[in-house]
Design a protein that fits this description.
mainly alpha; two-stranded antiparallel ribbon; 8 helices; 6 strands; about 50% helix; elongated
């Protein structure tokens, strides 16, 4: 017997299932300059926690470890590096959270739109019964965003958004920069502990020794936890991009119906054409160049 997903696809293949007369006219098209934001309580809390933890790390690194240091060059170099990476991490988080991940127009499964597709005999379109949209190939419905998302990988509460076609670059950069600042913070904590053990604890920090130890231990725990978590997420995302198979497609073991491209071309599809330093910038919107458009008809 087929899986529930396969049985659902069989139902979708029936022409009568579309029932365009049951769909209300689509809502007015929103201004393209309107910021995308998901009003989900859990996601908003997770986003606030993420920023709070980064600012906590900033506080400990700057005020507990770097400012009390007698080595000015050490403080300036590490301060500039850590603050620069932290800024890029928060910028990537903001872009991943406030960028439309590739939402399909809601309520477009109308008779007029279906007729405009000029379907040929034997061609099939898929309708999402939840948001009443005609789904492009490789699109999936997100119950949190309440929209169908093109090339949806997963919904991440830490960025309060889906990771999809338009914001995967920013999510990958976010995980990379968080992993880098976590590693950097751990290295600085180790050096600071060694320095304080050799010297007088009252001279290696402006805080009392007990407060300094507690702050450093908390930062060490936070850095280790997020280094492991974001490194794993970064690795899985890069693997997903190189194989051109989203997390949902891997989980559902969906049949591959799209053209196979090289790993390098798959990276360009996400980060932009051609390769440049802009790949590392959360302020640069990727130019998808020769990326194949996703079709409504399969």
């Amino acid at each position: 017997m087929g899986s529930p997903a396969h049985r659902c696809r069989d139902i979708e293949r029936q022409a009568g299932y579309l029932q365009p007369e049951h769909c209300a006219p689509p809502p007015p098209r929103t201004d393209p300059d309107t910021m995308w934001f998901i009003r989900d309580g859990c996601g908003i809390v997770c986003g606030i926690i993420t920023w709070f933890l980064v600012f906590y790390a900033e506080f400990v690194v700057v005020f507990v470890m770097l400012l009390p240091s007698k080595n000015l060059a050490y403080s300036l170099i590490n301060g500039a590096l850590f603050n620069g990476l932290a800024f890029l991490a928060l910028a990537s988080h903001f872009r991943a959270m406030c960028t439309d991940p590739g939402a399909v127009p809601k309520g477009n499964a109308t008779k007029e739109f279906i007729e405009s597709l000029q379907l040929k005999p034997g061609q099939v379109v898929y309708k999402c019964p939840k948001c009443c949209s005609i789904k492009p190939d490789r699109a999936h419905h997100c119950s949190v965003c309440k929209r169908c998302i093109r090339k949806m990988d997963h919904h991440c509460p830490w960025v309060n958004n889906c990771v999809g076609e338009n914001n995967q670059k920013y999510f990958v950069l976010f995980t990379m920069y968080i992993a880098l600042i976590s590693l950097h913070a751990l290295v600085m904590v180790v050096f600071h502990f060694l320095f304080c053990i050799e010297e007088d604890w009252t001279k290696c920090s402006t805080f009392s020794p007990p407060a300094t130890v507690i702050l450093l231990i908390l930062l060490c725990f936070e850095g280790l936890l997020f280094l492991i978590f974001t490194s794993v997420m970064f690795g899985t995302q890069v693997h997903s991009i190189c194989t051109d198979e989203t997390g949902i497609e891997q989980l559902k073991k969906e049949e591959r119906r799209w053209a196979k491209k090289s790993k390098w071309m798959n990276m360009k599809v996400v980060f932009g054409h051609p390769f440049s330093i802009a790949w590392l910038s959360p302020f640069s919107t990727p130019d998808h160049g020769k990326a194949d458009p996703y079709q409504y008809v399969v």
